[in-house]
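Exercise: predict the fold of this chain.
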Amino acid sequence: MGLASEALQFLRTTQSGVLSTFSSKFPGYPFGSVAPFVLDHSGQPVILISTIAEHTKNIIANPKVSLLAFAGDDDLQAKARLTIIGEALKIDKEDNIQREGALAYANLRARYLRYFPQAASYFEMHDFHFYRIGIAQVRYIAGFGKMGWVEGNELSGDRLSENKLSADSPLANQETSIIEHMNVDHAESLIAYCKHFHGISATHARMLGIDADGFDVKVSMQEETQTETQTKIIRFNFDHPIHDAQSARLALVGMSKAVKP
């Protein structure tokens, strides 16, 4: 696997980031803030931020930003991490509906809320908006001695030219229905995937998102030595990229066959 593919694979495993903007209050100084994010179907980070937030004011003055993405919270220097540099552009609801259709905006909102359900109330406030970070360059550190720069358009390889990896792709429009089907009709399959592919004995599993390269599942589990139920998001990677509901079905059926004794 090349560095670009590995970087995208890593980026898909996390929703934790630190956003750095150019301070408009203190010119010349960087300003860092916590910024949870999700990737859209073009592989670009989307953040939900308030108009009154300091980082939003900075972005309006200068849209050039960096986003440090990391996984876990222990010994960060020993783990993989990735820094994106690019421009943060507001996804205006009305403009987005005119250009990409109401469905595209609804899909993005639904995707974001599956990962961050606690943000539902933010949409009732008029000063919260989506911003998409258009990736210009990525600095990916996979581990000691394995690191490098990757251009933004290299992250997705040839699939961009095939229009299979875009914010308004067939898969983006079908994602919600695929997830609803899996969570309602195939919940046991998701639990079986967790055990077979990750060695996790889940008591509950719910698909959150599916993209060209794989899907994310939020699992609940309880260790014998613990009294409280633990939850985490785990990533499943497809052997081959998918691009619509039919190819997703084939990939998921193949996984179901693999878990059968």
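Check your answer against the key: Confidence is low (pLDDT under 50) at residues 158-163.
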